[in-house]
Amino acid sequence: MPYISQFNLPEKPIGLALAGGGVRGYAQLGVLEMFEKHGYSADMVAGTSIGSFAATLVAIGVGAHEIYEKFQGFENEFLQNKVFSRPDLDMIKPTKNKINGMVDGDKIVSVLDNFFEGYGVHTLCDIKKPLVLVAVDYNLCKVAYFTNVKNFTPSRDAIVLYDAPISVAIRSSCAFPGVISVSEYEGYSFIDGGVMMNLPVEPLKDMGADRVISMTMRPDKTGFSSKSAMKVLKRASDLVQYELLSQQIRQSDFNINLDVGAFKAFDVGKGTLIYKKGANIALDMEEEIIQFFEPPEPIPEPEPEPTLQEGKIKRFFKRIMGGFKNGKQ
Prior knowledge:
It contains ten helices and eleven strands. It has helices at residues 26-38, 50-60, 64-80, 105-117, 166-173, 202-207, 229-251, 271-284, 286-293, 308-328, and strands spanning 14-18, 44-48, 101-103, 131-137, 142-147, 159-162, 178-180, 183-185, 188-192, 211-216, 254-257. The chain is elongated and about 95 Å long. Helix 1 (26-38) packs antiparallel against helix 3 and helix 4 (105-117) packs across helix 5 (166-173). Strands 1, 2, 4, 5, 6, 8, 9, 10 and 11 form a nine-stranded mixed beta sheet that branches. Strands 3-7 form a two-stranded parallel ribbon. It is α/β, with parallel strands linked by helices. It starts with 13 loop residues before the first strand and ends with a helix.
């Protein structure tokens, strides 16, 4: 199994890919609780944007309810400090104090450093489960993998950063263009991984995952109608991302799409409602989840009936063998 000799993994490891989606990522926690209910867990994890935060906590071994509580803590802090206070984030106006983002992402690094100190981890290699967090270098136009997998060689031309600080990896993966400032690290300029790989199934397959279960928060895109040029332009951009995500979903063996309706990525303060929607979707898909983790044993195909000619040959050899036995007696 390539690249993962440093980890104690089963013969056929299961990968978990968590997509980005801002506050809608709360929905993933309802599914993770369903996993825990049945004693299921993934052997390797990958995440993009908000999925990178959840993926890191899953890889550390934090339970779904505790992740929910931590998410709530950050959400409340955002609300108190009015971090995302604009009513419409579709069009971000430039600000005087932030050249390439409304929020200073470097401040997020110090917050995350303090947060993960509570779990006794600082760099990715402090985590004992294979993990990949995805960002994008906007100068080189390449996907970047932050990982704790030594000598990881991806199937695509990508940047690989081994054992980076956890805070930097998550901050880079979450640098939503125009909202959170660009992450400058090791000479690279990183923005949100969702720009090119919102669902990181591919790196899990590259690491040797036998099967991958994925979670997305893709909304229903049908029923669009507008005479506004700007809305049509945005619609076209959304469709490009929609198709890209569709391709990534097809790479996974089982996808759980958590369509939480009209909630947007920056609907801060609505996390609990989104979490409940995710939990209800997980309940509806419980049997499918069980079948993924506990696939039924394949039924052996019956032996084909011999043809008339084959039957004559078998009876001929049977008579010969019977004659030999009688002769020996």
